[in-house]
Amino acid sequence: MKQLLLLFCLLPFLNIQAQRTNFDRIVIPPEQIARDYKEALVQLAWVNNPDNKVLDHEVNIAEIEKKAAKRIWLESVQASFNLNEGNFQSETDPGGNLFFPKYNFSASLSIGSLLKTSTETKKAEQKLDIAHHKVNQRKLQIRAETLSRYEDYLTALEMQKLRTQAVEDFYASYLAVTKKFKESRSSLEEYNQASTTYYTALENKLRAESDVNLAKISLEEIIGVRLEDVKAR
């Protein structure tokens, strides 16, 4: 019974651990093949974004500073070395006395330098963590922005199809009403209404085409290449 109760207590914690973000799935690493077309777009947006190079440099600098912080204690190491001059005299004088040791070596290290090394190392580790968090945050932003622009592009394409179909339908109606009007089988009001409806649909089609082009330009801006050059994987 106690084991079952403990399991229920741990379930929320285990669930949270299972839901932790895998940032290699948020943006597929460049050396890996993207799972599908959307992931390929996100991958391209990450690789071709100049701002991300800055973040990579920040991570590299933080790693260098961390290594340097671990070596701070070496700066305060003081070493001394001296020879016992009496040994040189004894070597030329067989009856002389040899003094031991023949040479002396000593080194000293202050406690303060060790404490400073520890402090600076912790600071460097924090800076490195911050740099990694910035990279991960940027991955979330890149993914959201890329997929959002892609959805805008798909929506614009669908709207273009609908507007094109509407133009074809209204054009057929316009032609039929125009024929009837010429044969005096429809009124001027009916003719004007059909004409207005057709040209309004035609205008909406042109706007839809423009929306597709703008959405495509916006998507290509973030992925850094022409959409036609993106290969489905």
Key attributes of the depicted protein:
72% helix, two-stranded antiparallel sheet, 2 strands, 233 residues, mainly alpha, 5% strand, Outer membrane efflux proteins (OEP), single chain, rod-shaped
Give structural notes:
With 233 residues, the chain is mainly alpha-helical. The chain has seven helices and two strands. Helix 6 runs antiparallel to helix 7. Residues 77-81 and 105-109 have low confidence and may be disordered.
What order do the helices and strands come in, and which of them pair?
Blueprint: H1 2-18, H2 23-26, H3 37-47, H4 50-69, E1 78-83, H5 85-92, E2 103-108, H6 111-182, H7 188-223
Antiparallel strand pairs: 1-2
Structural class: mainly alpha
- State Rg: 38 Å
Strand order of the largest sheet: 1-2
- Please identify which CATH superfamily we are dealing with: Outer membrane efflux proteins (OEP)
Distance between the termini: 51 Å
Share of β-strand residues = 5-15%
CATH topology: Outer membrane efflux proteins (OEP)
Output mean pLDDT: 78
Helix count equals 7
Unreliable sequence segments: 77-81, 105-109
What kind of sheet is the major sheet?
2 strands, antiparallel
Listing every helix as H and every strand as E from the N terminus to the C terminus, the arrangement reads: HHHHEHEHH
- Under the CATH scheme, which architecture would be assigned? Up-down Bundle
Anisotropy-based shape: rod-shaped
Domain count: 1
Please, what is the oligomeric state? single chain
- CATH C-level category: Mainly Alpha
Helix content: over 70%
Total number of strands: 2
